[in-house]
Amino acid sequence: MSLQKWEAAVRAWDEVLKHRPDSIPALNRLGIAHTQLEHYERAEVAFRQAIDLQASEPSAYFNLALLYLRQDRTELAETWLNKTLECASWYPETHYHLGYIRVQEERFDEAIEEFVKELGVNPASAKAWHELFRLQEKGYGHSGGLARPSDRSWNAIEIVSLSVIVICGLGLCGLASWRSSRSSRFLEVGPSEPANAALSSDKANVS
Fold this sequence. Notes:
This protein is mainly α. The protein has 10 helices and no strands. 69% of the residues lie in helices and 0% in strands. The model is unreliable at 143-152 and 175-207 (pLDDT under 50).
């Protein structure tokens, strides 16, 4: 998305907030737009306002973590990723980004564990699969691997087996969730939007 469109998004969400100053989705999306424009202080203010309005809202914690990660403020990013998990242990992409941090720290076995946890809540995460197999190909996570900060290692067979179990379980949970969601729907900024805003140049939906 062009800078002009992100600037238009800022104006649009500012207008929404004039009428609904307590809108958490609007604050999140405003923060995402400011992040894309590299208005990091304004983005931080928006995300923190969302947290102040509802301390149990995981998307604001997650967005703030990725904002810090984009600025290479890794310690703060990790803190807010962990806060995201405290609010919602299922929140997609959170374990993936913790794994990303572990890779940067060269704590490779711990990174593998985080990617496996990500697949436990988000089996379709192509990024987590990619990083797992990339590390496996380099010899990490095996006995005699290049780095072993923990005693637990994972191999590809274990990862696939775990994911099959998880997918079956999520299928049953998804059916129950779908049945309950028919009577209750709400707007929430999904994890793909802050991830795009903070870590890549992919398009994010701001409409």
